Here is the input.
Amino acid sequence: MSRVEALRRPPRLAAGARVAVVAPSGPVPEDRLLAGLDVLRGWDLDPVVALHVLDRDGRFGYLAGSDAGRAADLQSAWCDPAVDAVICARGGYGVQRMVDSLDWEAMRAAAPKVFVGFSDITALHEAFAVRLGLVTLHGPMAAGLDFVKSVRAQEHLRATLFAPETVRTVTSDGTALVPGRARGVTLGGCLSLLASDLGTPHARASARGGLLCLEDVGEETYRLDRYLTQLSRAGWLDGVNGLLLGSWAQCEPYDGVRRLLAERLGGLGVPVAEQFGFGHCDDALTVPFGVAAELDADAGTLTLDEPALS
Here is the structure.
């Protein structure tokens, strides 16, 4: 993809829909998983837990089981005609170790369905866009503390899943780092993952024509600088139409991060909305990726041309 283009929209969910919960990255706390499943059942969904979700790799405790097991869970869930949506349990690290093991031909042959996650799941958002041409949802995950403890996060995801026309405008409490309006197709995710994904077979060649969403967690400012500089040097930011900046949780106080964002991104000459309320934050909003939209940085709104799901 030389330019970011609008992607196919999967069908919205209805009561009784079956939702597979998978763990492509880090190990999952069982208590939080159970709490998240209760939330999904409360929405009249039928959640099913993939075989390896509660596994932990014996050599590397930061992985939810083996690379092969995590890949098999995701592929099995995606290719199961009885499954209507796949929701990740949590992020962490691990997607890049298993993404090359997925059978993308088989996944492309399966019926399109909803896919939800963020953080390390950024690498799968990119892969689903490049390999499947499919809209995905950058939103809270089933065993995430930010999901099980936040009514706002739950309700915004629920509305996106069941009645996406009611959240065609995503409204934040943020402000404009660089004022203005811009149109483009949404993409992005976790900054460090986008930088580390450069040059892989499952990543876009650039964000040209896009409305790029960026956020991260637990990073020193010099590392954020490194990631932004790498994207810039690689030409990945050339031609981007606008930027939405989410949360920078567990980074240095925001004033310092903001100086960096202004210095690295302000010169692009495009609108930049800050503190948009997605990512690693309380009450995180769900942002669809792969949908044509208009950003109003001054108003702090992202208005989709059509609902995220069909």
